[in-house]
Write a structure and sequence with these properties.
mainly alpha; binds fe (ii) ion; globular; 6 helices; Four Helix Bundle (Hemerythrin (Met), subunit A)
Length: 185
Amino acid sequence: MTNALNAWHAEHAYFRQLLDLLHKQVDVFHTGKRPNYQLMLDIISYLQDYSDQVHHPREDVAYARLAKRCPAIELTLVRFGQEHRVIAHAGKSLLNLLNEILGGAIVPRADLEAAAATYIVYYRNHIAKEEEDFVSRAAQALTAEDWEAVRSAVPAGGDPLFGDHPEERYRELRRQIVREAQSET
Ligand SMILES: [Fe+2]
Ligand SMILES: [Fe+2]
């Protein structure tokens, strides 16, 4: 269970790190320069691949289990599940815009700004609320059997970016993450 909780916190930290990286590219856009659109696309793709497909489905099982054990917070837990759907939808919209730009289309500046800001702010807020409202309660209330159900909600598979065997398609993104970490030390 401790391992599951540590992994949960670690994934939230990774996602926040990627949202910060995405935010930096949006800041470049605000200065009138061309951001690294491919990097932005890689970030969203990864979050779709891993967060939407693995992290969120596991959380959905955890919320359902926790709601049974703590009915008083059921509404909050239902909201988290709804937010997962909103995040997936907002991610798709942003990814579509980035694909259009990379394909040479002229996309109105305001469309990209709104899509990116919505995604970043909503996602950060979601993670902050989960850390505040959910993770400590889950640690107290969920049983070993619950954690097993959470883990097996999605077939075991590594994190394609931060895992032990990162995928080739995220090589550039990994390099950028390392560069960011070095520039902060
Ligand atoms: Fe979540
Ligand atoms: Fe989460």
